[in-house]
Design goal:
The structure holds two protein chains of two kinds.
Chain A (H helix, E strand, L loop, with lengths): L3 H11 L11 E5 L4 E5 L5 E7 L2 E6 L2 H4 L4 E7 L1 H7 L8 E2 H11 L3 H17 L4 E2 L10
Antiparallel strand pairs in A: 1-2, 2-5, 3-4, 4-5, 6-7
Chain B lengths: L9 E8 L7 E7 H9 L3 H9 L10 E6 L15 E6 L4 E5 L6 E5 L5 E9 L9 E10 L11 H4 E7 L1
Parallel strand pairs in B: 2-8
Antiparallel strand pairs in B: 1-2, 3-4, 3-9, 4-7, 5-6, 7-8
Classes of the chains: A alpha+beta, B mainly beta.
Chain lengths: 141, 165
């Protein structure tokens, strides 16, 4: 098991090309696993399934920090979902429209609760407007 | 401290148990594009988890599963999920990055009870660098009440269980 000092040095080394970087709420496309990930906080994440295509992200230690429990969500099978719902993959996708499409695609109480009570407030508070699914490296929100 | 092993397009190499036989060891690369994504989004905690847990190797994995029970397109492959192997186990520790990059540090945490770590790998065949696949993602999920150190609903999440040990 490494010491925290060893891990600290390795993390700083990995980020050495961007030494003044800081986390900001973001939405990005995980091309290799075909997912859109929306993340409002840098933390240790617990993924909980809403259904096979949606997971909500929780901070594993929110009770200790007193911060909010929910910190993001993932849309899995993102390319498939966007094509099925006529969402143009070539241009950045409006997250609000994506959430409306999710609501329409999965008309059940759990998804409605997830979108309205968790996802929409997260993207609003984090000012996360769009996600680029075209394959280009996205910019932080 | 284990040093980083750069090979071809991989920023590092980790060892894992073979999907076919848990007594055999395979080599998984860390895909440069995937790792760059973590750096680009400044996900310090996820990167700290990599160096603190994943880089030590996936040999402690207790279960392996293959295939995701959801749509997944990679390039034009509509069945790319069949190339995904998922390893799960319960590491006794976790890390959270606290503070800024320059002044912060990873903080050791004992994970909450009832969670398991899942690591998703994409298998590749005939790789010129002698790598059997790539590590793509790691996160915690709730533990199955019926199978220790496996994710809850593993039979709904994945196509098949490859092995348990």
């Amino acid at each position: 098991m490494k010491t925290v000092e060893e891990i600290r040095l390795q993390v700083r080394g990995a980020f050495s090309r961007k030494p003044r970087s800081q986390f900001r709420p973001c939405a990005y496309f995980d091309d290799r696993l075909d997912c859109i990930r929306v993340i409002a906080r840098d933390c240790s994440i617990l993924e909980t399934r809403i259904n096979p295509m949606l997971t909500v992200l929780e901070d594993n230690y929110y009770q200790e920090t007193g911060k909010k429990q929910y910190v993001g969500f993932t849309l899995k099978g993102a390319r498939y979902f966007c094509r099925e719902h006529n969402i143009d993959l070539a241009t950045p996708i409006d997250i609000s429209k994506l959430l409306d499409a999710i609501l329409a695609a999965f008309p059940d109480v759990a998804v409605e609760l997830f979108v309205n009570a968790i996802a929409k407030p997260l993207v609003h508070e984090g000012k996360i407007d769009t996600v680029d699914v075209s394959g280009a490296l996205p910019q932080p929100a | 401290m284990r040093t980083v092993q750069r090979v071809g397009p991989y920023v590092d190499i980790v060892e894992a148990r073979s999907p076919d036989n848990h007594l055999s060891v395979i080599r998984l690369g860390v895909n440069q594009a995937s790792f760059e994504q973590l750096l680009h989004q400044n996900l310090f905690t996820t990167v700290a988890q990599y160096y603190g847990i994943i880089q030590q190797g996936l040999l402690p994995a207790v279960h392996a599963f293959r295939g995701l029970q959801r749509p997944m397109m990679l390039a034009d492959d509509m069945e790319a999920d069949r190339s995904v192997v998922v390893y799960s186990w319960t590491p006794p520790f976790d890390y959270v990055w606290t503070g800024s990059l320059s002044n912060g540090k990873p903080t050791y945490r004992k994970p909450p009870r009832g969670l398991v770590l899942v690591v998703l790998a994409l298998l590749e065949s005939n790789n010129e660098h002698g790598v059997d696949g790539t590590v793509e993602r790691w996160n915690w999920v709730k533990e199955s009440p019926h199978l220790k150190q496996a994710p809850v609903d593993w039979d709904k999440r994945y196509r098949e269980k490859l092995w348990s040990r």
